[in-house]
Amino acid sequence: MSIRRSAIAGIAAVVLALGVAELSAGLLAGAPSPLDALGQQVVGLLPGGILTFAIETFGTANRAVLTAVSVLVASGLGAAMGVASRDSMTPAAIAFLLAAGLAFFASLSQPGAGAASVLAVLTSAVVMGFGLFVRLRSEVMATPPAEPAGEVTAEAVAAGSVRAPAAGRSHRHGDGTERDRGRRSFLQMAVGGVTIGAVGGIVGRGLLGGRGGPLVDPAGLALPAPQRALSAVPASADLARELPGVAPLFTPNDDFFRIDTAIAVPQIDPAGWTMRIHGLVERELVLDYDELLSRPMREVDATISCVSNEVGGDLVGNARWLGVPLRDLLEEAGPSTGAEQVMGRSVDGWTGGFPLELALDGREALVAVAMNGEALPTRHGFPARLVVPGIYGYVSATKWLAGIELTTWDVDGYWVPRGWSKQGPVKTMARIDVPGSDGSVDPGETIVAGVAWAPTRGISRVELRVDEGDWREAELLDALSEDTWVQWRLALELPAGDHEVTVRAIDGEGELQPQGPRPPAPDGAEGWHTLRVRAG
Ligand SMILES: Nc1nc2c(c(=O)[nH]1)N[C@H]1C(S)=C(S)[C@@H](COP(=O)(O)O)O[C@H]1N2
Ligand SMILES: [Mo]
C-alpha cells in the first residue's frame, strides 16, 4: 500500500469519524460534542499565558479556531495512523479505541452528559471511521501494483487471482484499466468519506449550537420583582444620547463583553438545575431555580470588568443586575469557623474565589438571575451567576453557577495557578470614548467624553490634559451608584496640529488613578488613557 494512499485512507477515516461523531451528538440528547469536549480538556491543560493570549486574541471566535485546529491535528494523526497501519490493522484499531476512550471521558466531564448517549455517539463514529479505513485499505490491496506482476491469463482470471480487464479499453499495461478502476474507486470512497464527514460535522455542530431541546429561552422568562425597584433612568441622563460613541450608561446585553473558558456555552435547563451552598457552612443549602427566584430580590447597578482589560479597552460593561443578595444566602447557610473564601463553582468546572469578608462588608454582591431587565442570556451565565462589585470577573463573577463553596484561603480558583493574582480589586480607570480612536477633529473647540470607574469607591473627579498642559476638571454626569462607571465630558480647545489628550480619574476616596503603565497581568492594567488627536 503506497504511503500516500495509506495517509489519504487514514485522513478520510478520521474526518468521517469526526463528522459522524458531531452529527450523532447533535441528534442525541445528553451527548456533548466530542470535539468540543476534547478541546475543553486541552484548554484546561494549556499554560495560563497561552490560554489568556488565545482568549484575548480570538475572543468569541475561540470555538471556531479550536475546531479548525482540532480538525487539522486530527487529520495529521489520521495520516500517521494510515501510514503506520500499512502492514497491519492493529495500529489503526488501537488509535480509534484510544481516541474514543479519551473522547468518552472528556465528554462525560461536560455538563449534562449521559454515558449511554456518549457511548452511542462514539460507537457510531468508530464503526463508520474504522469501517471506512478497512474498506479503503482492502481496495488498495485488491488493486494490482503499478508494474504488471505477470500476465493476465485466462487461468488467473478464472482462478480469481486477477480481475479481468474491462473490455473495450486499451492501456499501456495489461492491468492498466484494472489499476485505474481500483484507484478510482479508492478515491471515490475517500472523497465520499471526507464529504459525508464534513457535511455531517457542519450539520451536527449546527444542531449542537442551536440545541433547543428542553431548554427555555431566557429572554422569554418571567422575572420576579425586586423588593425595592431602582428608579428608571431617563434617557436624558445618558450622555450617549447626545454624544454617540460614548459608552451608554447601561451596556446592552447583546454588546456586553464576554470572557470565559467555555468552548461550547453551557446550555442549562432551569427545570433540572440546582445550586448548592456548601463547604465550611453550618447548614448546606440547595436551591432550585424556582426557589432562588422566590427569595427576596434586589436590583444593583454595577460595572464589571475583566482583569485582562487594557488601558482604553472594552472588556468592561455596566448593567442593572437582579438577584438574591449573596450575603442573605451565606448568612442562612452560616459560615463555619475557618471559612475564609467564597468559591464560585460553575457547571463547567470553572472556579473563582474571593475573601469571605467581601461578601459580608456591605457591598452589594448578588447571585444574579437577570441583567438589564432580562433573564441572564446564556452567554452571560444563565440561569444564575455571581456579580461582586469591586473585584475583577476572574475572582468573582462565576457564570452558570453550580454552587458556592466556603473554603479556606489556600484553595485556588481557576486563574490563580495560571499566573493571575490571588486577589483582584478593580483598579480605578478612565477611558476616552469620543473622539474615537482615529482621533481626527476640526481645529477649535472639541468635546472629549468617556467613562470612568472605580466600583465600590466611586469616582469623585475626572481630569484631562492636552499635551503637557495643565490638568482640567471634566464635568461628571450623575452616577448611578458608586459601583458603576460614570460618564464625563469636557470641551477642549485644540489648535490645528497633532495633540495628545490624556485622562485620569480620582476615586471616591480621593485616591488618584495610578499612572502606571502596567500590563493586565497579573492583577489588572494601570495607566492614564491617552489619545492622539489630529486637529485640522
Ligand atoms: N463559568 C465561568 N464563569 C466565568 C468565567 C469563565 O471562564 N467560566 N470567566 C470569568 C471572567 S474572567 C470574567 S471577566 C467574567 C466575564 O463575564 P461576562 O462574560 O458575562 O462579561 O466572567 C467570569 N465568569
Ligand atoms: Mo476576566
Q: What does this protein structure show overall?
A:
- The protein has helices at about 5-25, 35-45, 50-60, 60-85, 90-110, 115-140, 155-160, 175-210, 240, 290-295, 325-335, 355-360; strands at about 275-280, 285-290, 300-305, 315-325, 340-345, 350-355, 365-370, 375, 385, 400-405, 430-435, 440, 445-455, 460-465, 470-475, 475, 485-495, 495-505, 530-535.
- It has about 525 residues and is an alpha+beta fold.
- The chain has 3 domains: about 5-210, no CATH class; about 250-420, Alpha-Beta Complex (Sulfite Oxidase, Chain A, domain 2), CATH 3.90.420; about 430-535, Immunoglobulin-like, CATH 2.60.40.650.
- It has a 5-stranded mixed sheet. Strands 3, 4, 7, 8 and 9 form a 5-stranded antiparallel sheet that branches.
- Helix 5 (about 90-110) runs antiparallel to helix 6 (about 115-140).
- The radius of gyration is 30 Å and the shape is globular.
- It starts with a helix and ends with a strand.
- Bound molecules: the ligand Nc1nc2c(c(=O)[nH]1)N[C@H]1C(S)=C(S)[C@@H](COP(=O)(O)O)O[C@H]1N2 and molybdenum atom.
- The ligand Nc1nc2c(c(=O)[nH]1)N[C@H]1C(S)=C(S)[C@@H](COP(=O)(O)O)O[C@H]1N2 binds near residues 258, 350 and 397.
In angstroms, what separates the terminal alpha carbons?
A: 71 Å
| Averaged pLDDT | 91
- Helix percent reads 25-40%
Large-scale geometry: globular
Overall domain count: 3
Could you give the count of β-strands?
19
The helix count comes to 12
Strand content: 15-25%
Cα-atom Rg, whole angstroms? 30 Å
Q: Strand order within the widest sheet? A: 2-1-10-5-6
- Main sheet properties: 5 strands, mixed
Query: Compounds present?
Result: ligand MTE, molybdenum atom
Give me the secondary-structure category: alpha+beta
Low-confidence stretches: 148-171
